[in-house]
Amino acid sequence: MTSIRRTAVAALLLATTTAFVSKPVSKPQLRPARQPTRVAPSAALPQVVATAVAAIPKAVCALKLPTIRQLAAAPALYALMSINEYFTHKYYQHAEFNTSPWFQWLARTFVYGPLGKKVPKTRGGGHVEHHAETLDDMTLKTDAKWRSTKVAKSLDDDLYRGTAFTWTVTGIMTFQMLWTTIPTFWLMGYKLKHTFMCLAPGMLLHAAVWNALHPNMHSLPDIPISDGVPSSWLAWARSSRFFKFLYVNHEGHHVIGGKGNYNVCCPLTDHLVGTFIPEAQWRPRARSTYASWHGEELSVEQQIKNHVARESFGLGEVKIAPGAKKGDGGGAEGWVEKAEVVLA
């Protein structure tokens, strides 16, 4: 009995002891790295390339070419803008509406007459005064005597002295354009929304060209976005051949006393109706300059501004033969009297 008990205790101690004995840890065997499977060049690759090349002509043929209507949209809008610019410049800005029997009859018969009102006079938005102030070299009269006149004072409230295409003017011209653009584009098959999608950027582009050209060529400040389409949008293009042509064309407009070259940004209508005057014809008539007008009252600071403005168009020195007498306004002659009439 005692021997059996001793045997049981010994077995229990042996089992307990072996539970706390750590087994030796065997090192894991490292597996050999898997070698990437080499992919042989596909034998079908040349066939894929050949199929893609063969599909190119089909893809090109699938492209829709612009229709005649789409190709005609931009030229049609340009023509309408040129016509509008011509008539606005000649009859509104120059106030020739007031002396035109044809326009007076139209206004009296179809607009103001039925309303029992008298046809009002057009003032021109300061443009008549601008002509009176501009010399043949595109500089402005700045002497104290001129600035004290009623005509000059009428421009003092305008930083750009009647040369800028402000947001208000842009809106007015856009409204004017609607009466010709909508019917024309309707006849071309365009919906109203597509007409506006064409007209809106066209009007912005017109204002951008005007504001990059007109104020600067008269040595006036550039137009910021707060006042109109910024001059900076196209100021970089002033030395281009297109802007040089516009400058010289408008230069001639002033030299000949505003009797031709009415288109400023959209040359076309002048050529169609015979009012385009080439430089060879008007250049010999140019005679007044900033120096000849001001004499001893010449401002060196203003002369520098005038030179910088002209250089921005890459035109160099003014091509005007010296000899004009002091006080000779050149193409500005007669505009003072016109301005006094519209201001009366």
What is the helical fraction, as a range of percent?
40-55%
Q: How many strands appear in the DSSP assignment?
A: 0
Question: How do the helices and strands follow one another from N- to C-terminus?
Answer: HHHHHHHHHHHHHHH
Strand content: under 5%
General shape: globular
Q: Which stretches are low in confidence, meaning pLDDT under 50 for 5 or more residues running?
A: 16-25
Mean of residue pLDDT? Answer: 86
- What class, by secondary structure content? mainly alpha
Question: Could you walk me through the main structural features you see in this protein, from its secondary elements to its overall organization?
Answer:
- The radius of gyration is 40 Å and the shape is globular.
- The protein has a domain at 123-343.
- The protein is mainly α and 344 residues long.
- Helix content is 54%, strand content 0%.
- It contains 15 helices and no strands.
- Residues 1-19 form the signal peptide.
- This is Fatty acid desaturase domain-containing protein.
- Keywords: Signal.
